[in-house]
Write a structure and sequence with these properties.
- The complex is a heterodimer of chains A (about 180) and B (about 1000).
- By secondary structure, chain A is α+β, with helices and mostly antiparallel strands.
- Chain A has one domain: 2-Layer Sandwich (Gyrase A, domain 2), CATH 3.30.1360.
- Chain A has four helices and eleven strands; from the N terminus they run E-E-E-H-E-E-E-H-E-E-H-E-E-E-H.
- Chain A has a six-stranded antiparallel β-sheet. A five-stranded antiparallel β-sheet of chain A has the order 4-5-6-3-7.
- The longest helix of chain A has 13 residues.
- Chain B is of the alpha+beta class and about 1000 residues long.
- Helices cover about 20% and strands about 25% of the residues of chain B.
- Chain B has 25 helices and 51 strands.
- Classes of the chains: A alpha+beta (about 180), B alpha+beta (about 1000).
- Chains A and B meet through strand 7 and helix 4 of A and strand 8, strand 15, strand 39 and helix 22 of B.
């Protein structure tokens, strides 16, 4: 087969910056939706090489892999494009569900001193550093779309959003940044 | 000072005399100063006549200096699109070039024809509309309503689209302080110095509240207003404080969610187009401190509405803050001390005070002594019983309460104070119930249903020292409760002034006589005698009195009128005020623009528009799109010269003769994983799933407990413990939700997890005789020959080098495949397939052709051919219900007598007698047209199309007992004639079903 399709992400390369914040599109990533009861966590953590966080609103970053706590039995794993999460878990006998969602989401990066304010244009979460420190994550809302929000640093957030909602999420953040004053 | 600003007093007020501005009112250009409101600028130019009243068109002036203003409503015109009616002149800040017009007058403010209503007033009492326009009933829609509507309303709504942007911000804080007067600033300072995160807002352009006029106030050794400005600057510089001026707290919702609206550009002559006009702040506060102050009440006496008659505190604000005298010879009518301070300040500024008429019999104290010492005449135990003047007050008529001779005193302005009403609006909105304090005649906050407290005048404080003490205690307590106790704040505040005392209700016969007009509610033209009339008509609760008279129901929501209305009704009923009722204050506190509420959600941000990964290909092919939920789906692909019908006819024919491609990416998809996955699906669907082998597909029907069809889709068994479930496009979220609901609440012990994969996979349906040939050119690792890949089977492989989940299935009746590839590869795979398919003469087809193709086969669309009252049996899908299954969702519902009854509406096909006639979807069906109207309807058309493949129209319908009526003729009565059709089986193409195996 001569042809091989390469990933064509939604709104690739888009970026908007003004004043205190910017929004841009993150490069393609590997993602896994991991569901498991607590008794399986140890085996899964071992296989992944990342200790799955068990506290609400927390994440663990190891190297270029993020593991986000989304619920008592749910994690979102994010790694560089091509990262083989499923392969790492293939031999785990403990009960779990590993579903590849690499292409389900797109990710936006919101950065700058006004990043939290831009997100708070549509996200009702308390993004004060004391309530939402670096590493905090949450499945939440932004405007009319659901997002998974991960704070990478004081002034840097990763917004995971379903693929077809990504243009809306980008436009929303652009408007929020544009209306900052 | 410019000669034109004849009432501006040199050396008074806080505006910068060096910064004059030009503004216009009713086209007349005048001069004001930076920092003026329209009201202060007009008074500076000796203009008191500002508008005409709503019902009687009486000349009206400026009553207040703040948001409570009921009279001075104007139309502000920035440009063609930016024009806003009913702006209160007392809050509109002027800028260079500011322009406003008066409202509700024609041909001019001075000569208004509508004023005949004033003379006709005995014939249009309260409740007039309710009684008069009852009959004849037909006249309402054509005659009464249009005319009443034209007379109603004051200004003109803009007709152009709003060019401004609006913004929204969610925020959290330990303590939100509403109001930045003495109380709010002190509370915020105490909370902030203790270390709490604090937000403080004030609706006015500057901080200070009553300190703007209360000149004797001293705080922390500074003049009150100076302290306020310094404290605001101190707060604004603190990292843990956000101070917002021009920001109104307008809604106090559950769990301390308080909505603020910040006005950003309204006061600016020019601004950047990106800057939002307003921003809504949705604040979730751990604690709320309400420091909203109090609003002065007017006096209810005859002819109390002439321009130039205003609240004493307003006159004092105009003088002490704006440097404007409201007149040169003013009268005062009061029932408390605070109006004396207005008189004293004016007198000291060189204004003659003709007399202070005091309702109290023996007023005494420093304020009274000071007034007398300045030579002001005080007339105790008396009231103003009327006023003179047409477009401006010219005199007051004074009479002792005991009666006797009345005295006419010329004045050019009349200041009134009936006392102070605590602003309990925010407290009331927080669902607090106000408590009547009989001794002082005020409603005060009662118990707090949320974590909030009121401080200062809104909490009944009558002196500055009491206010400061309450505020500091509240700020410190709330900060401590939020775990902050860095530092205690100490402040000493004091003032010689007191805000106690007053009177409510109508005075000296103001509610007597046919023609007497003593206004209670200025904005809605409600008089004291209107309220008495309401009581005479049988209204006993204030809620009924309000609705009968419209008292307190204008856009000012009765900020000055509620207490008076209540007092008059209570007196007429001979009851205590609380027995007549108490007003519940509702949001918004003051009017809020629609733009602010809409916020960012305009244009492309109104709703997300969802596009599939293949969208760009459809655009390139010139597709027309249709909305399916939030999705934009390719509807049909017109070629040059084709209309929709021609395009669809070509597409459906090409699919059956050669092959077609369809973007099915919007289908809902759920990956069901776990050892109990088959058991779970067996329970959710009517079909059996436990015996479905890996590598096979099954069409599934999902019912609700009531036995009616909820959704359908095809389920692939990928592995022993893994399924790929598809749902309808529109059903994706609700199917997932219902599955999760059962899993979490009914069967939490099942070892299975659900994951939405709707957007993980792009789906291309490749259908038709050439489908296999096209696909074979691109796949690897999978044998797709007819023998190896039978209908309804599932394989994994690669296409263009990327992973593929391949469904051998058909929603057209042709041999077909649904090719799932990861979304980011969808477009490339589509384009590769499209190139090969079109080389063989195939085409892309849209949702319309898809609908026709499936209808030709009688395949249902849930939600079109079903409506939530259709069972699988009704839809002809009884075969899909597992007869041997012990349980599934809907099994008990299906056994209800009504669901098993013969003669239920059943899905059948229809062929019109005239093959060229296409029935209308939704059209009702009757057995015979020869019956009287209303006819007995036996069903309706659910799907109807022109079928190019059949060379005629086809339709599906739900008809009572339809299965027993095959071959019978039914009738569809339409406006332009009755259509005859025959009931047939709902399969119009390839009845044997052999083609899917091709």
């Amino acid at each position: 087969m001569a042809e091989t399709a390469s990933r064509l992400p939604v709104i690739a390369g888009a970026r908007y910056a003004k004043g205190r914040a910017s929004v841009s599109v993150a490069p393609p990533a590997a993602r896994l939706s991991l569901r498991a009861p607590s008794e399986s966590v140890a085996a899964l953590s071992k296989a992944l090489g990342v200790a799955l966080p068990e506290k609400p609103k927390t994440s663990i970053t190891k190297g270029d892999v993020h593991a986000l706590w989304l619920g008592p039995d749910e994690w979102l794993l994010i790694g560089p494009d091509g990262h083989d999460f499923a392969g790492a878990l293939a031999k785990v006998a403990a009960f779990h569900s590993a579903v590849d969602i690499s292409h389900r989401n797109a990710a936006l990066m919101v950065e700058g001193a006004g990043a939290a304010d831009a997100l708070n244009a549509g996200c009702p979460q308390d993004l004060n550093l004391s309530a939402f420190p670096a590493g905090a994550c949450s499945r939440t809302l932004m405007g009319k779309t659901e997002i998974v929000l991960l704070r990478l640093a004081e002034h840097a957030f990763r917004v995971e959003v379903w693929r077809s909602f990504a243009p809306y999420a980008f436009d929303f953040l652009e408007d929020a940044i544009k209306r900052d004053w | 000072m410019s000669a034109a600003q004849k009432n501006r007093i040199a050396g008074k007020g806080r505006l910068n005399a060096a910064k004059p501005l030009r503004f216009s009112f009713d086209g007349k250009v005048m001069q004001g100063l930076e920092g003026d409101t329209l009201a202060s600028a007009l008074i500076a130019n000796d203009i008191h006549l500002v508008g005409r009243s709503f019902k009687y068109h009486r000349p009206r002036g400026i009553l207040a200096a703040g948001v409570e203003e009921p009279n001075a409503l104007v139309q502000v015109k920035r440009d063609g699109a930016r024009t806003e009616p009913n702006v209160r002149a007392t809050v509109a800040e002027i800028y260079d070039g500011f322009a406003a017009d008066s409202q509700n007058r024609w041909p001019s403010l001075e000569y208004d024809i509508g004023a005949v209503n004033d003379l006709a007033s005995p014939f249009i009492p309260a409740g007039f509309y309710y009684k008069t326009f009852m009959w004849p009933a037909k006249a309402w829609a054509k005659l009464y309503e249009p005319n009443i509507r034209r007379a109603a309303g004051l200004g003109k709504a803009p007709i152009e689209a709003d060019p401004d942007a609006y913004a929204n911000r969610f925020a959290h804080c330990d303590v939100l302080v509403i109001g930045a007067g003495a109380a709010g600033l002190a509370a915020a300072l105490a909370a902030a110095e203790a270390g709490a995160s604090v937000m403080i807002c004030d609706e006015q352009a500057g901080v200070g509240g009553a300190l703007k006029f209360e000149t004797s106030a001293m705080i922390d050794g500074q003049g009150g207003h100076d302290w306020a400005v310094a404290t605001a600057a101190k707060l604004a510089a603190m990292d843990n404080v956000r101070l917002l001026t021009r920001t109104t707290a307008f809604a106090y919702q559950a769990q301390n969610m308080v909505c603020l609206v910040e006005r950003i550009t309204e006061h600016l002559a020019t601004f950047n187009a990106d800057t939002p006009r307003e921003r809504v702040w949705q604040v979730r506060a751990k604690r709320v401190i309400i420091a909203a102050g109090a609003i002065e009440r007017h006096m209810v006496f005859a002819e109390n509405d002439r321009p130039g008659i205003m609240l004493a505190s307003a006159a004092r604000t105009f003088l002490n803050h704006y440097g404007v005298a409201v007149g040169r010879n003013v009268g005062v009518f009061t029932a408390n001390d605070s109006a004396y301070h207005a008189a004293i300040d004016l007198k000291k500024a060189g204004v003659n005070v003709a007399a202070i008429v005091d309702w109290r019999d023996a007023p005494a104290g420093p304020a009274i002594e000071d007034a007398r010492a300045l030579g002001i005449e005080v007339i105790p135990g008396a009231g103003v019983i009327s006023t003179g003047g047409r477009l401006r007050v010219s005199s007051m008529l004074v009479q002792a309460k005991a009666g006797g001779v009345s005295r006419l005193i010329p004045v050019d302005a009349l200041l009134m104070s009936a006392g102070w009403t605590p602003s309990v609006h925010m407290y009331s909105q927080s669902r607090g119930r106000v408590v009547w304090d009989k001794e002082t005649g005020r409603f005060l906050p009662g118990a707090y249903p949320q974590d909030a407290i009121s401080v200062g005048a809104c909490n009944g404080a009558i002196s500055l020292s009491e206010t400061i003490d309450q505020a500091l205690a509240a700020g410190e307590r709330f900060a401590n409760e939020a775990g902050r106790m860095a530092k205690r704040t100490a402040l000493k505040g004091g003032s010689a002034e007191s805000f106690e005392g007053g009177v409510s209700g109508a005075l000296l016969g103001a509610d007597q006589g046919e023609t007497v007009k003593a206004f209670v509610d200025f904005q809605n033209d409600v008089t004291a005698k209107d309220i008495k009339l309401a009581v005479r008509e049988g209204m006993q609760s204030i809620e009924h009195v309000k609705r009968f008279t419209t008292n307190g129901m204008a856009s000012d929501q009765g900020k000055t009128s509620n207490i008076h209305g209540l007092a008059i009704a209570a007196k007429a009923l001979d009851r205590e005020v609380p027995q007549v009722g108490l007003t519940t204050f509702r949001m918004p506190y003051t009017p809020v623009t629609f733009g602010a509420l809409v916020g960012h959600a305009r244009g492309k941000l109104f709703d997300p528009a969802r596009h599939t990964p293949i969208h760009a290909a459809h655009v390139a092919l010139g597709a027309d799109f249709e909305d399916v939920g939030l999705w934009k789906r390719a509807w049909y692909y017109p070629r040059a010269g084709e209309d929709m019908h021609a395009a669809v006819n070509r597409e459906v024919k090409t699919v059956r003769e050669v092959g077609g491609m369809f973007d099915a990416s919007t289908l809902g998809k759920i990956e069901v994983v776990g050892p109990d996955a088959a058991e779970f699906l067996d329970r959710m669907y009517t079909n059996p799933f436990k015996k479905l082998e890996p590598g096979r597909l099954r069409y599934g029907i999902m019912c609700r407990e009531d036995g009616f069809i909820y959704d359908d889709g095809v389920v692939a068994r990928i592995a022993e413990d893994r399924f790929h479930v598809t749902t309808t496009t529109g059903g994706a979220p609700r199917v997932m939700t219902m599955m999760e609901d059962y899993l979490q609440t009914e069967w939490p012990h099942l070892k299975v997890y659900l994951t939405s994969i709707s957007e993980q996979w792009a789906v291309i349906a490749l259908q038709g005789p050439k489908a296999r040939e096209v696909l074979a050119q691109l796949v690897e690792g999978v044998d797709i020959s007819a023998g190896a890949l039978p209908h309804m089977s599932y394989r994994e492989g690669r296409i263009l080098g990327v992973p593929m989940r391949l469904f051998k299935m058909s929603f057209t009746g042709e041999a077909g495949f649904e090719i799932n590839v990861p979304s980011d590869h969808g477009l490339a795979v589509w384009e590769a397939l499209y190139a090969r398919l079109t080389a063989l003469g195939g085409c892309a087809y849209g949702t319309e052709a898809m609908h026709v193709l499936r209808a030709e086969k009688g395949y249902i669309i849930v939600g079109q051919d079903t409506d939530g009252t259709v069972t699988p049996d009704d839809a002809g899908l009884g075969w899909a219900v597992g007869k041997k299954k012990a349980d599934f969702v809907g099994i008990r519902g299906m056994k209800r007598a009504d669901l098993m009854r013969p003669g239920r509406k059943q899905l059948v096909g229809l062929l019109t007698k005239d093959p060229k006639v296409v029935l209308e979807e939704g059209a009702q069906i009757v057995e015979t047209p020869n019956q009287p109207v209303p006819m007995t309807m036996i069903g309706h058309v659910t799907s109807s199309y022109w079928s190019e493949n059949c060379g005629r129209s086809i339709a599906m319908a739900l008809i009572a007992g339809g299965n027993d009526k095959m071959g019978k003729t039914i009738f569809v009565p339409m406006p332009d004639g009755v259509i005859e059709a025959e009931i047939v089986k709902p399969v119009f193409v390839d009845a044997e079903g052999g083609r899917v195996h091709g």
